[in-house]
Design goal:
Length: about 230
């Protein structure tokens, strides 16, 4: 990335603005903007209200999740250069994650609830969450993400991660009976502006690379014709 070009500067500024928007959404609430929605899921709302607050463990887990996700993007970018098979890599990741999550689930159940029966599934929202994670997130999301990384690179895909905060805020307002404050709205606006600037700069770079490739083909073709003549 060349920061002395308009596209490079747009990518840098867009990344900074997107990061600022993420921090604003996470740490600043501000005045109340929208009250709770009447369209919410009672079972989800009761589960959230009954949960315990973890002011230290929660942010630590979020940081570890972001760090591991960023590392996965980098690994996928390097893997796609030599072995591009999104369905195969998704299958291998899923198989390797099964024993890991199994151990984590058993340890968490024994430590917190003194029984592994806490992880038992029934015909409720927990079963729906598992099916959603398995079918859409793992079965559909991972191959699409791998394909996007192969097409545009890991930084391009990583820039769309802050959109999750906007989606969470909207779903939380609908389903979890949460209010929307000025801070999340301001942060969402910054994220959208920063993302647009980054995507614009990336598209400009891709356009220049494609034009340079076409020019090289034309020059090489003319040179070959001259040599044959």
């Amino acid at each position: 990335m060349n920061i002395w070009t308009r596209s490079g500067q747009a990518k840098v500024v867009g990344t900074v603005i997107c990061l600022c928007g993420t921090m604003v959404m996470s740490f600043y609430h501000g005045p109340l903007l929208l009250f709770e929605s009447d369209l919410y899921w009672n079972e989800l709302a009761e589960g959230v209200k009954g949960g315990q607050k973890a002011t230290i463990l929660g942010p630590v887990l979020v940081f570890l999740s972001c760090a591991s996700c960023a590392g996965w993007f980098v690994i996928q970018d390097r893997l796609n250069r030599t072995f591009f098979a999104p369905y195969t890599t998704t299958f291998l990741m899923t198989v390797m994650s099964i024993p890991q999550f199994g151990v984590i689930g058993v340890v968490e159940s024994l430590v917190t609830h003194k029984s592994v029966g806490h992880w038992a599934l029934g015909f409720n929202v927990r079963l729906l969450a598992v099916l959603y994670s398995g079918i859409l997130v793992s079965g559909f999301g991972f191959p699409v993400t791998t394909w996007c990384i192969q097409r545009r690179g890991s930084p391009y895909v990583a820039m769309f991660s802050p959109l999750v905060l906007i989606i969470v805020a909207i779903i939380g307002w609908f389903l979890l009976h949460e209010s929307i404050h000025v801070g999340p709205l301001l942060g969402a606006t910054l994220i959208i502006v920063g993302l647009y600037m980054f995507v614009w700069g990336k598209n400009q770079e891709i356009g220049r690379q494609e034009n340079a490739a076409v020019d090289n083909q034309i020059v090489n073709g003319d040179g070959a014709q001259v040599a044959q003549a």
